[in-house]
């Protein structure tokens, strides 16, 4: 997820993530998993996901360990 520079700090990403998680609950999903970057530039994204209950996990699906990536998941 990336927010346009003109909208940084306005809560756009939080609102989108909140909407997606609510929709996932409606659809009765039990787990939401994501891949994001491991670099410092991705720290705000990782912090946002953690704020919404995501924790670090092992690679999922067809992902493999990659030093450029981190994997996170939350259970609904």
UniProtKB/TrEMBL annotation:
<dbReference type="InterPro" id="IPR000182">
    <property type="entry name" value="GNAT_dom"/>
</dbReference>
<protein>
    <submittedName>
        <fullName>Putative acetyltransferase</fullName>
    </submittedName>
</protein>
<feature type="domain" description="N-acetyltransferase">
    <location>
        <begin position="1"/>
        <end position="76"/>
    </location>
</feature>
<dbReference type="GO" id="GO:0016747">
    <property type="term" value="F:acyltransferase activity, transferring groups other than amino-acyl groups"/>
</dbReference>
<dbReference type="InterPro" id="IPR016181">
    <property type="entry name" value="Acyl_CoA_acyltransferase"/>
</dbReference>
<dbReference type="Pfam" id="PF00583">
    <property type="entry name" value="Acetyltransf_1"/>
</dbReference>
<keyword id="KW-0808">Transferase</keyword>
<dbReference type="InterPro" id="IPR050680">
    <property type="entry name" value="YpeA/RimI_acetyltransf"/>
</dbReference>
<keyword id="KW-0012">Acyltransferase</keyword>
């Amino acid at each position: 997820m990336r927010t346009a520079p003109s909208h940084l700090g306005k809560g756009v990403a939080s609102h989108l993530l909140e909407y997606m998680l609510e929709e996932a609950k409606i659809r009765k999903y039990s787990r939401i998993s994501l891949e994001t970057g491991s670099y410092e530039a991705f720290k705000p994204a990782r912090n946002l996901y953690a704020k919404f209950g995501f924790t670090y996990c092992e690679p999922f699906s067809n992902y493999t360990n990659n030093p450029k990536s981190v994997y996170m998941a939350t259970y609904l």
